[in-house]
């Protein structure tokens, strides 16, 4: 009787290297590494907000089976990495570019020595895409190509225009600084609590949704609550910086968009593709690759949507690599 898929994943995961490095301000940043072979091409995974590398077991295993070595980082303030506030559930960052500095350190100090003479590829989701774009603008030529999944180029602010949402958050941030040393939650945000699958905005796949709910329930260390006013303030600053520095991007990109995504602003993704393509047509298509019927988490969607996304990522990465020297 053959080993089932879950057991194969567990054996694969058990061979991983799990370690830390010191990020900006000496914070412990955790990561996972799965080596296919010393000569294998490398994919770095930059997860979204709230996520940990522990959530990416299925994806890492499939990428490994496709011939890649895998590195996954837990961004500061989430996953197993160091938290910066007394209340560890609060989604917080001092400066959004601290994420980008960590990612740059991760790639240059941890990943590069294991990448041979080729630059690594980068697969990013949501907030991890905004981090990736800021890193590419601040530190060009450290990766070969990047696939951006449901990028948080801008948060979906609903009926409130971005300029009004930005003004409101700026005002609240000043008030928070005036009245308290502890960053406040934004209205409606709270400590970690598990949410039911019904009406969730992330995925149509109940099994994958329940799997990561169970993961967070059994791993208290990776639990994270809602966002602080400060985090939102930094996210809005990052959106402005991304659009203001399009000319700094020199890395080929592909952008995947879920047609039913209500977490991030799909219109801003469209704007990003159009503007960057007009500036440097060789770097990106003028429109995103739209995954019809998909919610926000493309790699945790139902099989047909997930497989469509994954196959196109691998096609994008499959071109001949350029040397890093």
Polypeptide structure, described:
With 325 residues, the chain is an alpha/beta fold. The chain has a domain at 5-84 and 96-157 and 201-212 and 245-317: Rossmann fold (3-Layer(aba) Sandwich). Helix content is 38%, strand content 13%. It has helices spanning 5-14, 57-65, 96-111, 127-138, 162-179, 206-218, 229-244, 266-279, 303-317; strands spanning 17-22, 28-34, 42-46, 69-73, 121-125, 146-149, 253-258, 289-291. An 8-stranded mixed beta sheet has the order 1-2-4-3-5-6-7-8, sandwiched between helices. A hairpin with a 5-residue loop joins strand 1 and strand 2 (28-34). Helix 3 (96-111) crosses helix 4 (127-138) and helix 4 packs across helix 7 (229-244). The model is unreliable at 321-325 (pLDDT under 50).
User: What amount of the residues lies in strands?
Assistant: 5-15%
Helix fraction, binned, reads 25-40%
Instruction: Give the strand tally.
Output: 8
How far apart the termini lie comes to 48 Å
Using only CA atoms, what is the Rg?
A: 19 Å
The CATH class of the domain at 5-84 and 96-157 and 201-212 and 245-317 is: Alpha Beta
Cross-sheet strand order for the largest sheet: 1-2-4-3-5-6-7-8
Distinct helical segment count: 9
CA-based shape: globular
The major sheet is characterized as: 8 strands, mixed
What would you give as the CATH superfamily of the domain at 5-84 and 96-157 and 201-212 and 245-317? Alpha/Beta hydrolase fold, catalytic domain
Structural class: alpha/beta
Oligomer: single chain
Arithmetic mean pLDDT: 95
- What is the annotated CATH architecture of the domain at 5-84 and 96-157 and 201-212 and 245-317? 3-Layer(aba) Sandwich
Order of helices and strands: HEEEHEHEHEHHHEHEH
* CATH topology description of the domain at 5-84 and 96-157 and 201-212 and 245-317: Rossmann fold
Report low-confidence residues grouped into runs of 5 or more: 321-325
